[in-house]
Design a protein that fits this description.
Blueprint lengths: L11 H17 L8 H8 L3 H8 L2 H24 L5 H17 L2 H13 L5 H26 L8 H21 L2 H4 L4 H16 L5 H4 L2
Helix pairs in contact: 1-2, 1-4, 2-3, 4-7, 5-8, 5-10, 6-7, 6-8, 7-8, 8-10
Amino acid sequence: MARPAGKRNSDYSDRRKELLEDAIKRLLAECQNRPSLRALADAAGVSLPTIVHYFGSRTQLLESVFILLEEGGRPYLDRVREPSGTFSTSIRELVQFIADGFKDGVLVAIHSLGLMEGIRNDEVGPLYLRHLLEPTIEAIGVRLQKHIERCEMRRVDVRYAANALLSPILVAFLHQTELSGKKSYPVEIEAFLRSHSTGFIRGYGKSRSKKMQTL
């Protein structure tokens, strides 16, 4: 019996995920600049019409890629949301945890992909923000808010503070890896992380001094 028009194969979702995983490998490969939809189809070993059938446009495929990466990162962000110890201990461990995620190369490649595809693109840019960058900022903000509620951190806009914590780490790894700064302008990453942690703790930690608390 022929399948009714418009009805998908029973293995549609599984096949779609396989194609997405092949696309992710191609998109995250080193020295690859914005591969076309046809190139992504070639990487998956299928025809262009097959990719179009499963995803529609290149932008829709990228959105599906970002969503799959977002789903894979949820356990990671769950850890980011939960404080670990006192404010100073928690911030140092958070900075190290984020940095460890960048060190294996995959996370920095994911953000490089989002930036490369999203900058000056009114369609893809918001998709990268919604599914990858903003969830990370939100998770850090949740952790910081808990420290504020414990009276360990100054009352500030946690979104601003989360950006202040994340941005230097992201830029440092982009600088050293994706921009080849490790060759021409090497940075001792561990020293940088210690300095960044110390500065954030000093800037946002709640002073025990009454005088400082009124400033």
